[in-house]
Each structure stands twice: as structure tokens, then as C-alpha cells.
Amino acid sequence: CCSVLGVCCLLGPLLVTRGKSIMVRMNVLADALKSINNAEKRGKRQVLIRPCSKVIVRFLTVMMKHGYIGEFEIIDDHRAGKIVVNLTGRLNKCGVISPRFDLQLKDLEKWQNNLLPSRQFGYIVLTTSAGIMDHEEARRKHTGGKILGFFF
């Protein structure tokens, strides 16, 4: 596991440093969406997400724009930050797609059929050169990108 000096080595999500082992967050977006999913299943009204990142904030903004979550508040604790999300009870499932596959406009229909339960509701979130947006906005702006996740 550790080198001869015992300084540091990385084993998957476990970081061993000077004899102590700590967990390392591999995908903060996946952790955040899993927390939201679990809180929604338990019927909670709010959920605390940490750490905060720009990608998480923009993903939540897309979800809020479509009414799947309520408002959220970013708390600056002079560390990694926290987000308090108000839940509405409308969200059925949200998740991340890893690895972040490239998505061209012509492949969008195929991904919609695979990920979303119906044509009427649900969104795929993409990161594009024009920012993070849902698949309908990407189609209107005629731009592809990398797939981040989905919610419905």
C-alpha cells in the first residue's frame, strides 16, 4: 500500500497519509445528486450538500428552473462551502452519467430514449461551450457537449 517512507499513496477512494487513512471524494456531483435522491425518497423538505462546486450550482439551477427542486442557498463557510436545497417532492430520480460521454445533436434522441422515462418529462443536463444546460436548450442553441446527468 504505502511506499517505503510511508508518506502517501492513493488506493481508489482511500488516501493513506503517514499511517492515517481518509476517504477522498471522487465525484462531488454524484455525491450531491445521490444526497438529493435519498432525501427526496425519505420525504425530507431540505437537504444539505457539501462540498459546493460551480458544476453542482449550475446543475441545481437547471433543476430549479424546471421546478423539480425549490430554491437553494449557498453557505460560505470559508472552506469548501455548503448548499441547502429546498425539496418540492416532485423529483423522482436524478443521477450522474460517468464517464461524461460526448453528445452530438444527432445522438440526443437515442440518449433521451435510454435515460428518460417519457417524452413528456425529464431532462438530460449537458455541459457545452455555451454553459451547463438541459437537452432542450442545447437543441434550441444547436450545440452538443458532454453529458453530465439527468433528472425526472
Automatic annotation (TrEMBL):
Cite the entry's keywords alphabetically: Ribonucleoprotein, Ribosomal protein, Signal
InterPro entries, per database record: Ribosomal_uS8, Ribosomal_uS8_CS, Ribosomal_uS8_sf
Q: Name one GO biological process term.
A: chordate embryonic development
Tell me which positions the record assigns to the signal sequence: 1-19
Q: What is its main location?
A: nucleus
Gene Ontology, cellular component aspect: nucleolus; ribonucleoprotein complex; ribosome
Q: Which Pfam families match?
A: Ribosomal_S8 (PF00410)
Where is it located? Nucleus, Nucleolus
Q: Which GO terms describe its molecular function?
A: structural constituent of ribosome
Recorded hits in HAMAP family, A to Z, give: Ribosomal_uS8_A (MF_01302_A)
Q: Quaternary state and partners of this protein? A: Component of the 40S ribosomal subunit. Part of the small subunit (SSU) processome, composed of more than 70 proteins and the RNA chaperone small nucleolar RNA (snoRNA) U3.
User: What does the similarity note say?
Assistant: Belongs to the universal ribosomal protein uS8 family.
Q: What is this protein called?
A: Small ribosomal subunit protein uS8
Q: Which organism is it from?
A: Poecilia reticulata
